[in-house]
Structure formats: C-alpha cells, structure tokens
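Holo prediction — adenosine monophosphate.
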Amino acid sequence: MNFSPAGVLNADLHCHSNVSDGTLSPEDLAARARANGVQLWALTDHDEVGGQHRARAAALSLGLPYLTGTEISVTFAGETVHIVGLGFDPDDAAVVEGLARTRAGRRARAQEMAEGLARVGIHGAYEGALKYVGNPELISRTHFARFLVEVGACRDTQEVFRKYLTEGKPGYVPHRWASLRDAVGWIVNAGGVAVVAHPGRYKFTVNEEYALFSEFREFGGRGVEVVTGSHTQQDYVKYAALAEEFGLYASRGSDFHSPDESHTDLGALPYLSGTLRPVWEALADRIQWPS
Ligand code: AMP
Ligand code: MN
Ligand code: MN
Ligand code: MN
C-alpha cells in the first residue's frame, strides 16, 4: 500500500483514550477512526504508552495503518507545552521510564487542586475526579472538569477550565513537567519523530515562540502540528509558514477526547496543504501495516 498524493491523506495523529483523559477505550477509538474514514492513525495518550499495544492490535484488525504515539507534557519558559511523539518503539526503556517520571507528580498535584477547589466551596473534588479516571497514574484536569460539570458548578468543561482550572483560578496548581530536551530525546532515541502539538494554543511572545522552535529543532525535533482541532484558519496559515521557515514536517490530528466534549471528531479535519511535507513521509518505515 502507498499514500499518494502525499498531502491528501486522512491521517489522524493525535487523540486520547481512557488510558489518559479521553472517554473511549483504545478499541472503540480504532473503530471510530475506521468508521470516520481515517487512513493512518495514532493514539497519543498524555504521558502514557499503556494503550499502545491495544490500539495497534485494534487498528490492524480493522485494516487501519498505525503509528505509535504519545503526547508528552513539557515545561518550557514557565509554560506547559505538549510534544507529540510518533513512530517510536513503545517498549523502549528510556521512553517507559521517562513517561513514568513525568506522570509521577500528578496525584499530589490533584490533591492540591482539590484543596484549592474546597477553599471556594467545591468539596470532594479529588474523589469526584477519580470516578472519571481510567488510569490511576493519570489523573488530569480533564477529570476534574467532568466532576465539576456533574455537580452543576459549570455547564461544560470549557467553562470549568475558564473559571477554575487555568492560571490564577482556584483549582490551578503550577506543575513542573519534563524538559523539552528530555521529551524530544526520548522520542528520537526510540526511533520516532517529535512534533510540537497545537502551537496556536500557547501564550508565548514572538521571541519565546521562536526560542521554542529553535531549541526543539536543536534537540532533534522535526515536526509541527499545522492542522489540529484547536487551530483556526489563521493558525493553519501561520504554522504552515513556520513549518517552512524551520524546515519541519507538518502533522495533522484532531486531538479528539470524547464524543460529548470534542468539537472535532476523529478524521474530521481539512487536508494538509500540498506545499507542506507531511510528517508521515518521515515515518514511512515506522508505519505498521495491516497484513
Ligand atoms: P493536565 O495534563 O492535567 O494539565 O490537563 C490538560 C488537559 O486538559 C488537556 O490535554 C486538555 O484535554 C484539557 N484542557 C486544557 N485546557 C482546556 C480548555 N480550555 N478546555 C477544555 N479542555 C482543556
Ligand atoms: Mn487532554
Ligand atoms: Mn495537548
Ligand atoms: Mn492532546
């Protein structure tokens, strides 16, 4: 099998299962991707590879080509940045250990978040969030958001983030994640390609963003998400130009989390512009094909 022309491919290389903060199992996501016409798929759970073998098996059994994936939480210039890793060996020891260390602080952080929420009258948030957690090592703000919607504190998860879970708000706890150098290094040394996730979401100045991409490339990073669920048309144009400027491959992924919460479904995105080099060109020998 082969993909051509290169850009016109319904690749979805960014989404989450209940092994992190999505609501569907890896198997149900594979089926949904297949039903939506996805032609190349990667599951990219936050700081986790625990769903990789299941996702790959499910995809291949449905005739869907697969790339391993993860989305690593990184702290850069005091902000959280997400780095998607694609096509690496999910059993690589440094990847497995590095991600375990990245996950390690989540429980204590969640307890502090619950204390912050209790101070504004929302009690029992830690236990409440845990009810939504599929993986005890991966309690995230998304699980708190679901609990706050459940108890009627907000109408939807977007509102919860705005009022409670972002910087300066009662449930926000600053956290130190992996370094950019480590995250990119884990992926690259395990045979994969590192990609800056949804750059349009970061609150960086022009200089900080330039520093992010310069250092990312210096550490061996090779891709950037151009078409992704949270990007506007303007972001597509801006990050297509940035991909050219920095000589990066372009990626495409919905960032789908849940049928009830996500505005962009699996595979439901515009194609990459034909002038970009798609990231799957750099991953040709890492794609796992159905037999
Ligand atoms: P955490 O890794 O615990 O900080 O949680 C980050 C996750 O929260 C992201 O991966 C998104 O799934 C979700 N998230 C972050 N900001 C928002 C937002 N404004 N609205 C909805 N979900 C968000
Ligand atoms: Mn998420
Ligand atoms: Mn992200
Ligand atoms: Mn994501």
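READOUT: The chain has a mean pLDDT of 97.
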